[in-house]
């Protein structure tokens, strides 16, 4: 497995990290933070803690992120909070002069990201990165390399399905509450597929959709169906679903001389099946049964590679290339374009479109 981690410098003190939100994702992030030779978790916060304390390993435990930010000795903040406070905690970290890594989604709405970008502009010396870890899966990175190589030609279209079910408590937790989450399955999970579609095809400027909460009947969507097109004519279809009883991830990329099919995604639940990349070579157009080569991936290095890349940006003063605030803004704009394209859904929740180029981007 390729590692981005720089070798430790002799006598160099590690960057001191605080983690705001110490649930499942925060604990996964800590595993890879502490595995890095130049990062060390010194404090965490979680609303499930009853009072400030010190864990047996010496890490300080706080209840709120405000208490965490009162720490005198922090260099980096990881934000793993619910959507309603993610943006304000990110801004607070930047104002505290900390480098910040924030999980997706970056907030509840596009305005949240715009507010963060204003704070980022006030602190150009700091690094801000958003956690879109699917970009770092080996199948996705290999697909990028194959497309960049050019042998398969230009992208014609993309078809993506990303779905999960009630098994993840979609019917009972904070993700079902618009006031906290801002949106449902599209904002929570489908955002990963949209981010990858943008990664492969660029920006989508023409969007049609149907958005529904007809099954679970919460005030957030449980299904979103989108048809999108770039200015260059690349078309993408997406189904983001919370009624996919067998969890499913599949992204089919058709190119002018072949195709790439990404199936399954290695995750902590291990419920999406094997992660594979199928490479289809065009061959004889009349045959309809071309040569295929399938690779199966048995490890998920995405969390590690993402943390290591962020650390490198901080330590070596490099630009954030993946998961920048502009990436977060563009992907959030696309989410809300899908919401707005369904007129009934948009009218019900007062959603306005954010077509590419309309929102302020600096």
Q: Can you walk through the features of this model?
A:
The structure is a single chain. The chain has 362 residues and is of the alpha/beta class. It has 2 domains: 15-130 and 304-322, 3-Layer(aba) Sandwich (Rossmann fold); 134-302 and 332-349, Dihydrodipicolinate Reductase, domain 2 (2-Layer Sandwich), CATH 3.30.360. Helices cover 31% and strands 25% of the residues. It is built from 10 helices and 15 strands. The protein has helices at 24-35, 65-69, 83-95, 110-122, 138-149, 178-181, 185-201, 302-315, 325-341, 343-349, and strands at residues 15-20, 39-45, 53-54, 60-62, 76-79, 99-103, 128-131, 155-163, 204-212, 223-230, 235-241, 248-255, 258-263, 275-281, 292-297. The strands form 2 sheets. Strands 9-10-11-8-12-13-14-15 form an 8-stranded mixed sheet, covered by helices on one side. Helix 7 crosses helix 9. The longest helix has 17 residues, at 185-201. It starts with 14 loop residues before the first strand and ends in a 13-residue tail after the last helix. Residues 356-362 have low confidence and may be disordered.
